[in-house]
């Protein structure tokens, strides 16, 4: 359970203090970001704060929820409500990974206008009277990749924090872009050795290679003028303007990276893994996923031997070719273990769905189960799961770390490249299958080094669980964050009262 707000030496918080703190939580409208920040909202609710969770109308539509359903679901907590704004894109826009830049641009130029209007209506007496008894919004915690959300809040007199849903190590790599350019480590040239060490990211000089840098650093010829890379660096550096940076990570996993980030921020809170501090995310929100979880896969796992199943999931955005699919399948079959595979209908391509299903069926139904989406937390903690073949997204990396499940990483893009390097070279909890899709590597999941990897994974799990338990670093940081928000809120309420 999320640590409750504890009493400091100054004495108890009054009920008025708790009521005064009302946080607007605004994630980027992408599945992994929404899920992470729903867990964060759950922690705020457990600490006694009011929470308004802001979605895009598109995510509500594709989750099959309308206004009435949202209101009914939100009633499950009297201090939680879900609201939404348009993301600015046409209904038919795919909003897939290939056009993610268009989504970000639309949020910046169009959704920001609706956001400003909404936030203004939720601040002050008008907001308090028009929103079902909720107090005025006194603090914003916005996704750090949407820097406009911090700026708009501060312009309206609402203190704002930046929340990054990726790892501290990837945040530090983005923050180090000027240093990488200064040292000539970017851009890459044709024929450059991708295994060449990178010296420009502090604390990672002994193990970081060119191929481990986030994908935006690798996919541009002119970093100083590349629009995407400049956007990524811009919103990373902009976090220093927010009242604080909040990261879903634990000191036991990323202590060094956190120390190098801290001098560039006004304050830093490492409060994760959030999913391990809460039994379930805040109810009533659209998680941004159009796929329904297949709970039947848990019953299938019940029938398998302990640590015998390979769980395969490459996240909500990864796309692969039919050839890459075949390579994965070949490795899984050769490894000889039963496997549970999450295959989204849009992952290989709609035109290939029949071929994909036939190939999996040929592997033997008794040893394979394919689902469109799975309850991943429950799957990873199941006794039958012995290994996780993953894209090394940060949510998945944290979930595997908490459960002590060894991983084989096939990173797809953005922060996944550096996350997978930490898995293989720093924590020693898995294999990093980067830049290749190799059946032989997949087959090695049960190889000689598996015992050592499993021991490292279980050792890390013990450390992370201590971090989130009472008295642990993450639990203490979450309490400090709640106190910080309450103090900001008290100041904000006083300012509102002074204006009356």
Automatic annotation (TrEMBL):
CDD domains: GT1_Gtf-like
Family matches, as Gene3D superfamilies: Glycogen Phosphorylase B
EC class of the enzyme, as a word: transferase
Keywords carried by this UniProt record: Glycosyltransferase, Transferase
GO molecular function per UniProt: quercetin 3-O-glucosyltransferase activity; quercetin 7-O-glucosyltransferase activity
EC number: 2.4.1.-
Domain of life: Eukaryota
PROSITE patterns found in the cross-reference section: UDPGT (PS00375)
Pfam families, alphabetized: UDPGT
Family designation: Belongs to the UDP-glycosyltransferase family.
Name under which the protein is recorded: Glycosyltransferase
